[in-house]
UniProtKB/TrEMBL annotation:
Protein name: tRNA-uridine aminocarboxypropyltransferase
Signal peptide: none
Record has Transport as a keyword: no
Main EC class the enzyme belongs to: transferase
Organism of provenance: Shewanella phaeophyticola
Keyword entries, A-Z: S-adenosyl-L-methionine, Transferase, tRNA processing
Domain DTW span(s) in chain numbering: 37-237
InterPro entries, per database record: DTW, DTWD2/TAPT
Pfam families, alphabetized: DTW
Enzyme Commission number: 2.5.1.25
TM stretches of this protein: none
């Protein structure tokens, strides 16, 4: 199993930070994101006044993640995939290419210590892949009585880009698929409120953690996402004064979720 990390450990530079720096090195001009005049933190990419890095802590978890990111997705300040790497210590991140597939990524997918699961909607599956909506401990037990670590593979981009990545990547067709039941998605949407968009990468990952029998870690990631969204909107002056909830509310909600996560492990 992957070595767990204490919840009290401050999170370090992670895979998405490194991939972001690498992708920037390939660019011939600055990435033209909305709010490009905003002075941003180099790590969380939020406005410096609303940087969340000091609150970032690793969760104690037995789950690993792999982010396969579409071209410039890693450059977008609004990307939520990085939030997974913020909290999950064993997170790997790679750029997707149609032809020049990263060999290190393929090696991880073949690593006998991991059991990969593609986190993807069942309705888009075109191959005879096993589909599950829960990852149970017995599914990870090997004949040798060793337990594999679930490696949750996330396709990070727009839904159109994610479907393209899936269809044009044969190595994604060789693993079981973790797909969520409609009632799970409906319950999540109800709890999140009136979001008029499809779930983002971090939101899907929070559901995946719950499906991997770590519901409190799923709630912690969801609270981290809420703090990220609110900090992003504040940085862009997208909140009317009469609708403002103090940012401390979101910080406290995340702190409470971290405490509950630790109690789950204890």
């Amino acid at each position: 199993m992957t070595q767990v990390v204490s919840q009290t450990s401050k999170a370090a530079i992670h895979a998405v930070h490194r991939l972001h720096a690498y992708r920037k090195s390939l660019s011939t001009k600055p990435f033209g994101a909305r709010g490009k005049k905003l002075i941003r933190c180099n790590l969380c990419l939020l406005g410096e006044l609303f940087c969340t890095c000091k609150h970032r802590q690793y969760l104690t978890t037995q789950v690993s993640f792999m982010l396969i990111m579409y071209n410039d997705e890693v450059l977008k300040p609004t990307n939520s995939g990085r939030l997974i790497a913020d909290l999950i210590p064993d997170t790997h991140a790679f750029l997707w290419t149609r032809t020049n597939t990263d060999q290190q990524m393929l090696a991880l997918l073949d690593d006998p210590h991991y059991q990969p699961y593609l986190v993807f909607p069942q309705q888009y599956i075109e191959n005879q892949q096993a589909v599950v909506n829960q990852i149970m401990p017995q599914a990870l037990l090997q004949p040798s009585n060793k337990v594999k670590t679930p490696l949750l593979v996330m396709l990070d981009g727009s839904w159109r880009e994610a479907i393209k990545m899936y269809r044009k990547s044969p190595y994604l067709h060789q693993m079981p698929v973790l797909s969520f039941a409609p009632e799970a998605l409906a319950t999540y949407a109800l709890r999140k409120g009136s979001h008029d968009f499809q779930l983002g990468t971090a939101e899907v990952a929070s559901l995946a953690l719950s499906a991997a029998q770590e519901p409190q870690n799923g709630l912690a990631l969801s609270a981290w996402f809420d703090l990220f969204v609110e900090s992003s909107l504040l940085g862009r002056n997208r909140r009317a004064k009469e609708t403002l909830t103090p940012i401390e509310h979101y910080i406290n909600a995340f702190t409470d979720a971290l405490t509950a996560s630790k109690q789950q492990i204890d």
